[in-house]
Amino acid sequence: MEEDTMKKIDGHLHLVRALAGSKCQGRLTPLGAGYAIWDNGEVIKLIPDGWGEDDVLVEKYLEVMKENQIEKAVLLQGTLNGYQNYYSYQVAKQYPDKFSAAFAVDPFADFALDIVKRHVEVLGFRAIKFEISQGGGLHGFHQPFSLAEHAKVSQIMHYLADYPGFVVTVDYGDSSQTSYQPEAIVALAKRYPKLDFVVCHLSFPNADHLDRLENVLTQFAPYENIYTDISAIQDIEGERSEAFPYPRCQKDVKLAKDILGAKRIIWGTDSPWSATFNTYEQLATWLSETEIFTAEELEQVMYENALKVYFKPDHVQALKDSVDPAVAFLQDNK
């Protein structure tokens, strides 16, 4: 393989200060060596070898970035690892030109709006992640709800409308789950045209059912404020290292390009978990081994689109200007 010199932003990454997963399998307890166990007894390999025993800290990921020519990364949240909101803030605050961060909140919590306001007004976040999937998110331990119609979510969205360019990133799971609701994304994008929406994992594609993906992307197409990231589609399609550069994923991404265009597709990895199935290097280079995109389009997918959505200059400045009250508290109470 030739040396990879393409500029890259990993548009879907998870750093883990302390494993605190909680979803349909119960609570997650670390076991060491990158393994963890759910309350129902299921053991998973969550962290690649060499990345950490029970955590994935920024110091380690900075090494991975250097090894793979990753210039920036977007820190997202999920119930798999447990929300890492505050650690993500600390990392992005320390490296504001290298990391952008989204926070997450359970809208069923009584203090959900207060949590949102703190992250936006005090900590300077300009992105929120809704992990609502039944398999890995809120629908696994709440009654089914519509992201576009739920009263508490609507309260949050009305508040976010005061911040043009705010990013709402959503993982709604696959079509077998009650959480699968692309139509809700369309409704929200129409209702809030000044916000940006990112659908994770290319709406959970299946190369054997491209008509379904075509239907979803055709719904998204008229709305320029809807983007999709293509993280973890290797996991979803069941393609492992030996399948590199992933023929099933190529079919999915080719269709996305045909319908949405290259300017609305964001590359990402969904590491660390996805890097236990395929190496990070493979996830970072597979698109360069295909003929889906021209060189200019590939730069858009690998770098420019994430820069435009997640690293808006005023959003970076909001983070830089934030004053962390916890730091002052600790200093005053030493």
UniProtKB/TrEMBL annotation:
MF terms in GO: carboxy-lyase activity; hydrolase activity
List the InterPro entries: ACMSD, Amidohydro-rel, Metal_Hydrolase
Which keywords are on file for this protein?
Hydrolase, Lyase
In which domain of life is the source organism classified?
Bacteria
Q: Which Gene3D superfamilies match?
A: Metal-dependent hydrolases (3.20.20.140)
Q: Tell me yes or no: is Disulfide bond among this UniProt entry's keywords.
A: no
Domain Amidohydrolase-related positions: 9-311
Q: Name one Pfam family in it.
A: Amidohydro_2
- State the name under which the record lists this protein: Amidohydrolase family superfamily
